[in-house]
Amino acid sequence: MMGGNQLHRTDWISAFPFDTRCFVPAGDTIIGDGCWIGSRAMIMQGVKLGEGAIVATGAVVTKDVPPYAVVAGVPAQIMKYRFSPDAIQKLLSARIYDLDEKVLLKIRENLQSDNVDALIEFLQNHTA
Length: 128
Prior knowledge:
Layout: E1 2-3, E2 30-31, E3 36-37, E4 42-44, E5 48-49, E6 54-55, E7 60-61, E8 69-72, E9 77-81, H1 85-94, H2 101-106, H3 108-111, H4 116-126
């Protein structure tokens, strides 16, 4: 669910949007590759979810979420990161989501693991 109905201006006498002059753009919402968004979560306008981010069920995300972070709550806060900072940099550098479908099929066993180094090694040895 996208949040942030920008048509209801609380600074006007009537908060009802009689016409489109009320609209205040807040920017594009960007959902990175590999994100998981729990049910009934609300992502506000202009927020960016980094690659691999996880948004907990019912969370209200009002700020950008870094890659591979897990956020929860109202407003959403970072609870933890899925991997170490070093592993996150390796994953981002690997550009997994830009790989050809055939390569993704080759690495699916590595993707179903928490061993980032094994994935990077496989990619270096089998996709060059």
